[in-house]
Design a protein that fits this description.
Helices cover 30% and strands 24% of the residues. With 196 residues, the chain is of the alpha+beta class. It has one domain. Strands 4-7-8-2-1-3-9 form a 7-stranded mixed sheet. It has a two-stranded antiparallel ribbon with strand order 5-6.
């Protein structure tokens, strides 16, 4: 758990206009993603400090559904008890969770899930993060089963390098971002329409 960050961050959620306005008007609650390939495990996903990346994501979704009207909603978030995968202490916890997951799968004689390419991404980024999701789910479950040293996580935060090289020879990638999965929706303190 990390307590070395500021309490509140601004995050941005790419969605349809209908969903975004219903969140802002408090007509609906956020819906957590529960897919087996979520990058940070189950949660309500935000891009930290990056409304443009959230809009990019929503525009990509529109390509698959022409009735989808892209929208970005801003979120004021208290990170709470955050599994922050940008620091070594929390990365070490994730490594231990991987070992536990692997031992469980080995004992059952099953192969571990794998992170895999989407097939349509020219950069061969591992967009389907089945292994990472399974490890984070395992960590959440081990805390839920009574791990005495840890409290359940409110949020999970990670930095992801994605996209092509920013310029020739660069180690920076064009879609690098910090993403947050909100596990405890009570950590959301409010919604807003980001300035254009």
């Amino acid at each position: 758990m990390t307590a070395l960050h500021t309490s509140f961050v601004l995050g941005y959620h790419g969605c349809s206009e209908e969903v975004g306005l219903s969140l802002i008007l408090q007509q609906k609650q956020p819906i957590k993603s529960e897919t087996a390939y979520d990058w940070l495990g189950p949660g309500f996903y935000l891009w930290e400090s990056d409304p443009h990346r959230a809009y990019e994501w929503a525009k990509q979704k529109q390509k698959r559904d022409l009735t989808f009207k892209p929208f970005v909603v801003g979120v004021v978030l208290d990170l709470g008890n955050c599994l922050d995968l940008t620091n070594r202490e929390d990365l070490a916890l994730l490594q231990v969770a991987y070992e536990g997951l692997k031992a469980t799968f080995d004992a059952e004689g099953n192969p571990l899930p794998e992170n895999r390419d989407a097939g349509f991404d020219p950069n061969n980024d591992k967009l389907f993060r089945n292994l990472d999701c399974a490890v984070i789910r395992y960590l959440h479950a081990s805390i839920g089963s009574g791990s005495p040293q840890l409290a359940p996580y409110d949020t999970v935060r990670g930095l992801f390098q994605e996209g092509g090289a920013l310029y020739p020879g660069s180690a920076f990638r064009s879609k690098t971002h910090t993403q947050i999965a909100v596990c405890n929706l009570d950590c959301i303190k409010g919604f807003f329409i980001p300035p254009s």
